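Memo to structure team: turn this sequence into structure tokens by end of day. - J.P.
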Amino acid sequence: MDAPYRDERLPRYTSYPTAPHFSSAVDAQDYAGWLKTLAAGTATSLYLHVPFCRSMCWYCGCHTTVALRNGPIVDYLAALRGEIALVAEQLSAPLDVRHIHFGGGTPTILEPAAFVALVALLRHRFTIHPEAEIAVEIDPRRLEPAMTAALAAAGVNRASLGVQSFDPEVQKAINRIQSVEQTAAVISGLRAAGIGAVSFDLIYGLPKQTVQSCLDTVEQCLAMRPERFSIFGYAHVPEFKKHQRRIATADLPDGEERHEQAEAMARNLVAAGYVRIGLDHFALPEDPMARALSQGRLHRNFQGYTTDPCEALIGFGASAIGKLPQGYVQNEVVIGRYAERVADNALPIARGYRLSAEDRLRAELIERVMCDLSVDIGAVCARHPVDPRVLAPSLSALDALAREGMIDFDGSHVLLPENARLFVRKVASVFDAHIDQLPRRYSRAV
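Reply from structure team:
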């Protein structure tokens, strides 16, 4: 594919519309009203954001801050527990919580007893399904045996480990020194504790990274046989993430090299028996995500690809995003402001987005393209009370992509060939009515 598509800045489409389009037009009062309308038994997911790390990885694009002592973490945990109570008080009926995800930052920075107590609070305030997935993101450099035991005691059954790269030169360039042996020991400990579902996060496009170093990292990871891999392209946005200025632009691979790195890693994972899923995920054939793909049940949310079909996502913590049937909400990003709002007994919503019927149509089209690499536009339109003529510009853009050989398109059915998989964000973007408004906020397409 042409270089302009590799270098184009596009959303990752973990939501539609994407977060840069949220505004203060949606506030805490709106959110409270939306929570009250959730019916009994609504399938629900909970996301809890812990925005602290012991050190800053220079590639990081997350909302997190360095905490060298525990005081700020303890204070934050008190605010988080307060927000959980505030949200629970708005509900008029018990929900059916099927998924709980702890993200960060480093969620396992909490004290073991505090983590167990936090999950116990969730079980007290919400109806947690007996077979709910409880997942946590882990920095293997910081996980102690006591925390592993706490995760198991709390019912965690899925762990996502940050690896990124095992190349020593790359690790120095991103300020993240993590050995293979250290990572393997964490995996062994998790499995011994009964947490058998493990995912590895890798990144391509990092400073000083090469195709060979990417392949070496994959081979080292395969020896540990995680159930899933996520392979993300590094998003270099130093204008928004100041710590990324520590990374020398000259050390970054160009678009062609990034493409080669991503495809080389994918080939080796597929050869090792993993199913390639969407843009950047891989899973063993027996994994629920691989089964969801084969059955057309794959979804996409703020954690990427997911088996989670829940109708409501409730976010807790600074910067956390939630989605209810009416639209999106996002909490205050600054930790201090978030804690102040909760202390004032107020839902800490900073902004959000109210979905229109057209937004829902476009969101489904984008999700299906991102998940299935194909979509039947006519069939999707039939499920939405929207005049399909609003998609006329999208159809014209699809025609153009078809002439370039990026997709197969017959006027309704869109199909990406395998060699265009990494450009799925470009195809999805033709359904995005906001795409030209904030191009500098997005990462490179590949």
